[in-house]
Specification:
alpha+beta; 12% helix; globular; 277 residues; ten-stranded mixed sheet; two-stranded parallel ribbon; 12 strands
Length: 277
């Protein structure tokens, strides 16, 4: 069965599930982000919530020029003067900046087919993310490379979860909000597209709800890691509804990224050391 048909069947099954106390706590209803005909595409820009330290941002001496502006695009280049950075985080960001200075093309990890981790996965500004909601699990599928994330509902964290690319996510509903708690992320991921490093203590809380009459998905995100930030950072991210009448489009990232026609130095795409089957 094609993936788009699987997604459509799962979405219809999720809609047909009766609302129960296991689904929504304490509310008797829950927010519905799922559909077989639309996904969510991140809007550019991440804003700090009131009272929060600023997230890592572009060095003002190296302005970021996006694509399709008529000018030569540039890459992320972190402002190392952010006062909320620890020496560990600043050193990691300096290494990324140094790579850029050496002529390395600092494409996003997602564009090079690497798993991005959380919260970077929320801010997909090209490929839509689809939600499937059932009583025991919320599953998100990114159209880009069909990346799947599992959020297990109304259960506690495991006593000693094994680190993984997207960590262990558990969630619950609070009225109109989906609340997600993620720990145990692989330290080969980064906190943001500037490549802020993190430790195994990284803790991410996400709160999702709908605004603008259901046309915008808003995520309020808290990022805690004493190895990287002096104080926790509280961010707001938004995604717009992206219509996809035919459902999710099957794609394989590595098909388009194995060859660089510009001859740039860049991060290699991941290669499995052994087959999955």
């Amino acid at each position: 069965m094609k993936l788009r048909n699987v997604l459509k069947a799962a979405a219809l099954a999720a809609i047909a599930v009766p609302v129960s106390g296991a689904l929504a706590q304490p509310s008797k209803s829950f927010p519905d982000f799922s559909s077989s005909s639309f996904g969510w595409v991140g809007m550019r820009g991440v804003a700090a919530m009131p009272g929060s330290p600023s997230p890592v941002s572009q060095d003002p001496q190296r302005p970021l020029v996006p694509n399709n502006t008529g000018r030569q695009p540039t890459f992320p280049y972190a402002d190392l003067s952010n006062p909320n950075l620890t020496p560990f985080a600043r050193d990691g960001l300096k290494k990324a900046n140094d790579l850029s200075d050496s002529g390395f093309a600092m494409y996003s990890r997602a564009s090079r087919c690497w798993a991005t981790g959380v919260p970077v996965a929320l801010n997909s500004v090209v490929q839509p993310i689809f939600f499937i909601q059932t009583p025991k699990e919320v599953t998100t599928i990114s159209q880009g490379d069909q990346i799947v994330r599992h959020i297990y509902m109304d259960v506690p964290h495991s006593p000693n979860p094994k680190p993984s690319w997207y960590g262990e996510s558990v969630g619950h509903y609070e009225g109109e909000w989906l609340v997600v708690d993620t720990i145990a992320q692989d330290t080969r991921t980064f906190i943001d597209n500037f490549r802020t490093p993190h430790s195994d203590k990284l803790h991410v809380m996400e709160r999702y709800h709908l605004i603008d009459g259901g046309n915008t998905l808003e995520a309020q995100v808290t990022i805690e890691d004493p190895a990287s930030f002096i104080q926790p950072v509280h961010l707001q991210m938004r995604a717009r509804k992206a219509q996809s009448p035919g459902g999710i489009i099957e794609s394989r990232c590595a098909d388009g990224e194995s060859f660089n026609p510009f001859g740039q130095k860049e991060e290699p795409i991941p290669v499995a050391s052994k087959p999955d089957f």
